[in-house]
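The instructor's notes for this session suggest beginning with a concrete chain rather than abstract definitions. Hand out the sequence below and ask the class to guess, before any prediction is shown, which regions might be ordered.
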Amino acid sequence: MKAIKILLLGVAISLSLTVAHARTLTYAMYGDIKDWDPAAAFSLEVVMLANVYEPLLWYNPEGADERFTPALATDWSVSDDGLSWTFTLREGVTFQDGTPFNAEAAKLSLDRTREMRQGAWYIWAGVESIEAIDTHELVITTETPQPIDLIASSQYGAYIYSPDAAEQGTDWFNEGNAAGTGPYQVRQWSQGQQVVLEAFDQYWGGWEANQYDRVILRVVTENATQVQMLMSGEADFISLVPADIVDRVDQEVGLSSYAVPSWKNSQFLINTQKYPTDNRAFRQALTHLWDYDSVVNEVYDGHASVGEGPIPKTMWGHNGDLQNPTFDLERARELLNESGIPESDWEISMAYIGTDEAYKNSALLFQAMAAQVGVDVDLLPGDWGVIWNRAKDLSTAPNLQSMTWWPTYPTPNDWLIGLFRTEDSTLFNLSHYSNPEYDRLVTEGAALEGYDREAAVQNYEEAQRILVDDAVAIFYADIQSRVARATDIGGVQENPAYNAVFFYDLYEQ
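After discussion, reveal the predicted structure:
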């Protein structure tokens, strides 16, 4: 009898869960959550972060009536001198662990993020102080005028989290725990397999009957497997959409696939401190071995354009006057000879995410072109977490490292600082590049943004020229975001400011 009661109880629980989560959306993402701590997370975690946590403001896509949508701040203003920003915070908000949200909680989150100096903490570098002057009023004071409204809408480093969670620390977060104010809370994490998000019943925005109350983030690292899951109905949304299948998927009944402009670009970072790419002429030669047009037209099937330096052409501050390298085997051969590197040492390593077809096919084409002038390229595909850790350590770093970048918030300095400014402890400067004049230009440029954008752009344009001249990377593609999903999902909006899908906006139609 006891066994029967337990069995019946299990059935009852199963039925209640089925009823409670009648609308489930499965999203296939190409990597697991690496850093759960919102103060440190700075990569694929944005898929989870943007649905579990909230910043003070959300940045709206182009064409919207307003530049920002209120999130945890309902009103904001800046002083005449541009140094003091006042945010009126939303009342009646509760963190997912039951802790009340207020100005002290917001201050604690932002101060902790700044003090930890991990991930995107640097976006707050110009802040002098953060003060909770009332229960729901926050004042951020800066040393020089800063675009704090933009910074406060960042997709990294600007999320507000529970003070109780912060007290438990990074180790607690990294066990798969989370405590934000967002519409979804983390219900389960099976490392390397999936994250289950469930609707937060007390979410201040409320819920409609046709919204998705459960989202499964399934880790699927293979392009082909993601596509198969979408075609079979196992996934409703996928993150890896090979360029050459966009049109084919769009012709399938019940599916929609398309490409849209983005702020993403792809490059292979060239290690400036590892032999033989520590030689400038040798690096310049490599930039002429890249068949730019073939990669854009064939590998990306036209869903990209040839890159022109480190900043995508869609982002303000892009330097349109750069003299970009062209595919030129003869010029590459000349530069290789000018480098003084013995031909017997024309050997380089090239690491990339092995499950990404675009990286793989681009690398194979580069390997073939390099072979024509006598350069041997050793391809090192691998999982992102593994190759990233190796690339950060100069002793294990490759000569070339794949990188696709999207901004923390809408500013050119995100690429220029995040990827190429000197780092004491390497995070994303996987070129291991260090140039005092370059550092000065981008640091001053970031400080100028808040009150003299024109002067900031001048600094950024000169910094971009230095990077191209020093051949710190092969800047090869400004890429379009490719979307593939089931057509019965309504509410989908494309916003280049966030590399995430906002599941709360979606509904079953």
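Then share the key points. Residues 261-481 form a domain with the Dipeptide-binding Protein; domain 3 fold (CATH 3.10.105.10). The longest strand covers residues 255-270.
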